[in-house]
Every structure is written in C-alpha cells, then in structure tokens.
Amino acid sequence: MKILVFYQYYTTPKGSWSTRYYHFGKRWVEAGHEVTIVTSCYDKSDLTAEGWVSEQHIDGVKLKVINAQISNRLSFWRRVGGFIHYALFASWYAAFEKADVVLVSSGPITVGLPALISRYLGRRRLMFETRDLWPEGAIELGHLNNALMRGFAFWLTRRCYRAAHTVVPLSPDMGDHQRAHYKVKNTLVIPNGANTASFAAKRDSWQLPDWARGKHLLLYTGNLGPTNGSHLLKQVAEELARRQRDDILLVLIGKGQDSEMLMETAERLSTIKVLGLKPKEEIISWLQHATVALVPLADKPILKTSSPNKLFEALSAGTPAVQTTTGWLKTLLEDNRCGFTVSPTDPNQLIEVLETLAGDPEKRGEYAENAKQVAAREFDIYRLADRYLGGFEELMERVP
Question: Per-residue pLDDT tens for 262-284?
Fold first, then answer.
C-alpha cells in the first residue's frame, strides 16, 4: 500500500515536539508499506530544508520537507502566511504523488486545500485527521476574530468533512462534536500516545542537576502560552513561595508566548525553573524523576475535547498526571486511578494534590503503576499505528 501523509509538524525524537508521525511512519514501513510524508520546517522539529523543497529519508520514510517556516512565536499573519505557503506547495503532491490512501492531519484547516485536491482532483481515498477542532477552537480562544475568515474556515471545514471517506478525531469528545454539528458518519478515534517502552525504560546515565535533587518535582513540558495554563503555572510558583515550600519545585520545559513572563517569575522565586526546549530523550528522564506531571489547559469548554500528547507521555513514564479539563480526560484519570483533575483557576487545588502524593509514597506508587498499565493498554504509539493500518485496510475495501 502507498500511503501519502500531509502533516506540517513532523519531528524525530531528537526534536522537541510530538513524534506521532515519526513512529507511525516507521511502523507502517516495517509492515511493508510505502510511506511519503509531506511536512514543513517547524521550529520545534529537528528538520531543516534547503531550497524550496528538500527530499529526505528517515527510517525508510520518504519526507518532502517544504521550506515553510512554522512557529507559534511568529505574529498571527506570519503564521497564516506559513500555513498558506505549506498548503500551496503541498497541493502539488496532493495532485500528482501516487498513493492508495491519503491521510491529511489538521489543524490548521489550511491543510484542507491539499485534502480536497487529493480527493477530487487526484480521486484518492481520503482520511482526514483532526488533532483539534477547527475553527471552533481558534474562535473560542480568540485567535480567529475576523468574520470573513471565520466564515471561510467553517466552509472549508465542512467541505473537508464531506470529502473525507473517514474522519479521524483524536478524542471521543471530538468525534461526538463532529457527528452532532457536522453529521460526520464514518469516524475512527485514534488519540495521541507515546512510545511506552521508551518512556518506561530507565536511563541510569542521566542525573538530575544539583538544584533539583531532593525535591518533589512538578513537571510541565510543552508550549508556554495562555492556552496551556501559563498563568496557573505562575500562580502555583507564587503560592509555593508564599507557603515557603522549598521542598517543591515547578520545572517547565518548553517555549512559547509566555516564556518571558515565566522566566521573570523564575528570576525572583526559587520555586520555579524554566529550562527552554529539550529533546525528547531528555524529557523522558525528567518525567521519570517527577512526582507529578502537569497538563493544564485554559478554562475554555472547547479544550475538553483535547488529546494532549504530554499527558500520555507522562502516563507512559509512570508519572501521575494532573489536568484541568472536564471531558474525557477527567474520566480517564478517575476510572484508572492514574491522575487527578483540578480547577484551571485555583493553584491551591493543584498544590494539595502534590502534597497528598508527596506525603503518601504508597499511593503515589499505586497511581504510577496504574499510569503505566493504562498507557501500555490504550496509548502505545505502535498500537495506535496498527489501528490506523486497520483503518486504511477497511477504507481500501469500502472504497474500490
């Protein structure tokens, strides 16, 4: 089977972003399929490109790296320009690259252009993956305020859902929304996940820095921005300082819109450290030494549909997770006793969870073991890759 993927954020474990499609592509090649991924130069990836497009090969996967610069640190219009740049160049491959199945991963919804070209001009079987809900998420978070652009985004989203033979939401709540609001019929839920074997393997050669030893670590990894609860993180550091809890340290690994605010907080308080971006291999070691992993999201209803990669990485490392949404993740953590849900606006709730686990090693150990088990059972990245293969095969049979 020839599988053609459009995904703007491809990275390997050497980068500082989700390795979802690195592992998917590797698995599909190992299963005997021919895989081409059309991607771009995301600033948290380890990929670079020369000229307009660079062809590269990684673990048997052919990459077409479009030299479109994508970064959350760019202004809104520069980000839009990068998305359009990618969509236009990707459309060439959508029209002319041979494939039995085309998989397009959104957002942003601008990838709908190569999706529609693949479906109607290339006349190929189309799977349309939604990593978040566009444009509802962008509107609710205040990123898409222009009425004309909103209208176009809704139109393009509807066209993509209608064109797709299968829609792949990353959470059951997301799938419910698509069926209720867009009348989507064929869905296949494939959440984010992690290479559970890699996250569970001990790395004896790696040691905590001196300033972190002997402390209970609250670890956050990912984008440092308002959508990801950056103000809650700041409040947690301030409350820890007020309580004089020098035995607890908030460690942030990442960059984003609020990096400067959080670094200024770290300069005046000893309860927080901001480390910047780190490769995936080092993040695994930090997770294994953390008492709790934090997965805060802003207090917005749309975010209850999220499928945050960092949560499944934490569970895979055997680190209990604390998150702030009221949707499927809350149910997941409660049913499997592997984490907790707290208010997105109350730092005291989060600190109380940490104090409970720090003061009860037996309970923390129980939650850690439960975390590993649920990760291996439901969120192992290679199990998810195989689920995708099953979806491809079903699509090949359903659509001649």
Answer: 999 999 999 999 999 998 889 99
User: Which CATH number belongs to the domain containing residue 70 in this structure?
Assistant: 3.40.50.2000
Angle at 50 between CA 44 and CA 55, to 5 degrees: 85
**What is the reported pLDDT for 50?**
85
Q: Is the dihedral of CA 150, 155, 161, 164 positive or negative?
A: negative
pLDDT at 181 over 80: yes
Q: Is the pLDDT of residue 362 over 90?
A: yes
Residues 329 and 290 placed together within one structural domain of the fold: yes
Strand partners of residue 380: 194
Cβ contact 28:36 at 8 Å: no
Distance CA 331, CA 347 (A): 21
Q: Give 187-254 as a DSSP string.
A: B------B-HHHHHS--TT----GGGTTSEEEEEES--SGGGTHHHHHHHHHHHHHTT-TTEEEEEE-
Contacts of 282 (CB under 8 A, 6+ apart): 206
Beta-carbon contacts of 207 under 8 Å, excluding residues fewer than 6 positions away, are none
Structural domain boundaries enclosing 124: 2-193+381-398
- Whether the full predicted model's pTM is greater than 0.85, yes or no, is yes
DSSP-derived 3-state class of residue 89: helix
Identity of the amino acid at 71: S
244 and 180 fall within a common domain = no
